[in-house]
TrEMBL record:
Pfam families: Fer2, Fer2_2. The lineage of its organism: Bacteria, Bacillati, Actinomycetota, Actinomycetes, Kitasatosporales. SUPFAM superfamilies: 2Fe-2S ferredoxin-like, CO dehydrogenase ISP C-domain like. Residues 8-84 form the 2Fe-2S ferredoxin-type domain. Keywords: Iron, Metal-binding, Oxidoreductase. This is 2Fe-2S iron-sulfur cluster-binding protein. It comes from the Bacteria. Signal peptide: none annotated. It comes from Streptomyces kunmingensis.
Amino acid sequence: MPTDAFRSEVSLTVNGSPYRLPLDHRTTVLDALREHLGLIGAKKGCDHGQCGACTVLVDGRRANSCLLLAVAHDGAEITTVEGLRGAADGEPHPLQQAFLERDAFQCGYCTPGQLCSAVGALAEAEAGAASHVTQPGAATGAPVTLTRDEIRERLSGNLCRCGAYPHIVEAVEDVIR
């Protein structure tokens, strides 16, 4: 069987720029970002979707990019940590600034995934998506107030081997105040 039978051209918009990539059908979004586009912010930690180091935003929702086949996301808009922006061009995203101010990282390996996950978690809470710890009486569809418990729960899929969790929660709290 010809090798072209196992490849397809995939269109992705990554950090606002369009790309057409001829990819093997087994290529994950993570590998497309790192190996084909040179965007190395998202990390390959466990390669099983358990650590969150590879978290990116896909069509505005956070996802473990190591579990996503690129061909299944043809036409998707992907935002990586490199694409997070502040209000002014060249300015860091407010979460990036808060992570710096709160020293919310140590080795930094998990930080890109933590940042993308936090951006997604803030958007989910604003849209009214409940988490496991959201109070049962909360109004459906109303923005969810992000308490420390909410923040911890929503970011629980992102592991930090250095244990910077308290500072990560504080950084997210700084942004929502």
